[in-house]
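<purpose> Linking amino acid order to shape
<body> The protein record starts here
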Amino acid sequence: MSLEFALCLMTLFLLASIGTPIGFSILVAAIVYLAAAGQDIGLAGEQILQGLYESFVLLAVPLFIVAANIMNAGTISERLLNFCVAAVGRFRGGLGHVNVVASLIFSGMSGSAVADAAGIGKIIVEMMTRDNRYPPGYAAAITAASATIGPIIPPSIPMVLYALVSNTSIGFLFLGGIMPGLVIGAILMALNYYLSVKRGFALEDPVPLRELPRHTANAFPALLMPAILLYGIYGGVTTPTEAAAVAAAYALLLSALFYRALSFRALYQILVSSARSSAAVGLLIGGALILNYVVVSENIPNVLAKSLVGLDVHPLVFLLSVNLLLLVLGCVLDATTIILVILPLFLPASRELGLDLVHFGVVAVVNTMIGLVTPPYGILLFVINAVTGISLREIIGEIWPFLGVLVFALLLLILFPDIVLWLPRVFGYAG
């Protein structure tokens, strides 16, 4: 490690430790490196601008953010919840199942765990805690856990970012996330059923079956969005980026014209909020781009790859080790930082060891989603706390069983790659 790179890391950790936003911390650390190495600090701006403007795929990120925000404000979330209550609310642990199924459906529209938690989180937690049906901590914990499915089932903002750093097909990544998302949903529902029986949670009054067609028809336009997106991408009609634009336009038309639940004032506020969120993500992406330049300049990925190959590391051992590291990092770093900054370090070694990069990427995204509910800094814990007012102590006290089954699901994906790769192969993936 060179002195310049050591100074870069020291600056990064120092700024991050005092609460500086990670995007700014990375940018300043990279500038310190360039200055110490005697290079033109203008390279920082050049790398950021070239990386942002030359990557068409990055346009999908703000478009999916806009789509998610429009759906949250346009009563789509409520309609989907009513449909889920009618469909699965009659079973033991009914509202817990509703929570998971709603996340599965909503994940096919937003591509964001935070949007999922903030959108349907408050509504479903209020439903679960009404009349003391479920403990507040339990309701918040299952909401946070189910929200992790959001970026796994397509569309997925984290997978778009992974495609950016790995040059992997977004389409096959999206396909690879469908089965893992369904598996995680099934495991969460099984745990919810077990805990509901063990703790004696009350049964819900079932919605009469004759009302199910009405609820289905009411939610049907919203339920069409995932089908439209997937057909557009895999039918060759649109690129993933264009599909993101279609998602935003469809959400706007649905909320404003069909459901008539979106005013011009609300739309303006949505666009402002989305612009701020996109700017924050863009700043982090820009910081990651210049930091990746620094890492490549130090030849760290190639050195790491060669050292691993020289040690004759088994691919499964390598994959398990990387995922263990990501689980630890997920306790203190957000998912975007891990995908943009940490994962590129391991991609050359993954290629050398013959690992499938679609499988590696989907597993890594699932891992980073687990980090969103991992104490002490799991962002979803704070989001649920903010929108519901339930204390972090209660949420963290109830999150551990859900965290355990999520790690179990991750292990299944690592040990059985076909869970990820089966559907991409059906659609022509050669890996």
User: Anything to note?
Assistant: The chain has a mean pLDDT of 81. The chain has one domain: 40-426. The longest helix spans residues 264-297.
